[in-house]
Amino acid sequence: xxxxxxxxxxxxxxxxxxxxxxxxxxxxxxxxxxxxxxxxxxxxxxxxxxxxxxxxxxxxxxxxxxxxxxxxxxxxxxxxxxxxxxxxxxxxxxxxxxxxxxxxxxxxxxxxxxxxxxxxxxxxxxxxxxxxxxxxxxxxxxxxxxxxxxxxxxxxxxxxxxxxxxxxxxxxxxxxxxxxxxxxxxxxxxxxxxxxxxxxxxxxxxxxxxxxxxxxxxxxxxxxxxxxxxxxxxxxxxx
Length: 239
Hints:
Blueprint: H1 2-18, E1 21-23, E2 34-38, H2 45-48, E3 57-62, H3 70-82, E4 85-88, H4 94-108, E5 112-115, E6 127-128, H5 133-141, E7 145-151, H6 153-156, E8 171-174, H7 190-208, E9 212-213, H8 217-238
Parallel strand pairs: 1-8, 2-5, 2-7, 3-4, 3-5, 6-9
Antiparallel strand pairs: 7-8
């Protein structure tokens, strides 16, 4: 109920101020379980990704969104609950398996599951290598996978920017369902999982028009931080 209240309040405001657009909404089934596999460009994706769909989109988000204290923690919990986020532990190992089971339970209940295969927001607007959890979900659940591409949200609200820029129209494109039935029963094969994941990422690249980078976004972020520190240290030494 809270999801629909938030959408009813925010939806008209977002349409009026930002004039978002959508393509391919008819590709998303009106009932039954489905996986929306999307690129992740910006915090703004949480606002605009599901705006044009008549169905609730449930996404998996890091548990830290729900464990904060004080007013900030309360607002964070309210926001992410309102946009359909379910908290998961993303520390890896057994936690990753628990996250997978949570996703499968959502799909078994007939819902729409939104997932970002990159695992984190793009640090520079490019599309990064997908993690294979999305492939395991697709093969174990045997439900359709819809590529879900956000457009212009990085330019509108890049990482570190607290408020979106006006004058940039965010968009979302929903691709045709991807059929992985030829791989059913092979969800324990690492090569199959990588092939399925790469096919999803290629479809996203085509829809979004992004440049693809064959490395994980989390690794790219670490490299950027390291490079910035080295540049700062070099500057200090020259001074």
